[in-house]
Design brief:
By secondary structure, the protein is α+β, with helices and mostly antiparallel strands. 26% of the residues lie in helices and 36% in strands. Bound molecules: coenzyme A.
């Protein structure tokens, strides 16, 4: 297992991991499979310089983490939002923790001061992973999502990076 910064050559493999979460989980509130080149906008912030890391095994992408702008309003320029996805079959092996530490370091190097995650409120694995890394729960948005025939809450977690 290794972690490295992503390149454009990884885009399809990253979307393949993401599409599993789209079709099988409530970890993302996307409901439509993403494909290239239609959804190149998924990588918009990466192409602006925001970090994105891939987790690989035998040179194959098995997970990714990225940070993107929280808002395009300039006063938010030092606040970013995190996403992390690891393929099923590779969970609970410590990879998420390692990948998170890597992207948090990269976000700090990219001069970000605050990092936020919006986490579906029953997605325990992600909530626990964030807590272990010092994220604090700062609020819950009630019933803001509807997927797989049910309403979903979102927990917002925050960490100060400096
Ligand atoms: C969330 C996710 C990235 C965690 O990655 P992972 O590699 O399985 O996590 P790790 O093995 O590094 O676990 C680190 C810690 O997180 C917590 N954790 C991970 N999975 C957990 C689970 N199923 N239940 C409870 N806690 C869990 C534990 O505290 C764990 O430490 P421990 O194993 O020493 O107890 C992974 O489950 C995933 O990709 N899930 C689907 C997508 C998703 O939910 N992304 C987050 C969107 S906000």
């Amino acid at each position: 297992m290794s972690i490295r910064p992503a390149t454009q050559e990884d885009y399809q493999a990253i979307l393949d991991v993401y599409n599993w979460a789209v079709s099988d989980t409530v970890a993302t509130f996307d409901t439509e499979i993403k494909s290239l080149p239609i959804h190149l906008s998924f990588f918009k912030d990466f192409e602006l310089g925001y970090p994105m890391h891939v987790l690989t095994q035998d040179k194959k992408v098995i997970g990714f983490a990225l940070v993107k702008a929280f808002s395009d309003r300039k006063a938010y320029a030092r606040t970013c939002e995190l996403a992390i996805y690891i393929k099923p079959g590779f969970h609970r092996k410590g990879y998420g923790m390692t990948l998170m530490k890597s992207i948090l370091g990269a976000a700090k190097d990219f001069n970000q001061k605050v990092i936020l995650s919006k986490i579906e409120s029953e997605t325990v694995a992600s909530l626990e992973l964030h807590r272990k890394l010092g994220f604090e729960e700062v609020g819950t948005l009630k019933r803001v999502g509807y997927k797989f025939d049910r309403w979903l809450d979102v927990t917002i977690m925050q960490k100060l990076l400096s």
